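Appendix B, Record 12. Input sequence as logged:
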Amino acid sequence: MSELLILGLIVTLVLLFFNREWIKNRFFPEPQKNYTIDDQFNSDKREREKEIDRLLSKMGKNGVNDLSEKDRKRLDELSKM
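Logged structural output:
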């Protein structure tokens, strides 16, 4: 009886090993990817807008002097895009 249990465990592990990609995709799907160039552009644009909003919000609380030099440079870069 214990031999069958061990054999069943080995067969199960082998099946899981060879089906690991299917299991990963089935139970842990990757987030939706951009399918077209337009989707990628719009996704990038939304990310830039979020970062700009974050920097402007930080600046709006205490003025321009509240931004670090790095934040100012990044805000300039984003505003030129």
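The radius of gyration is 25 Å.
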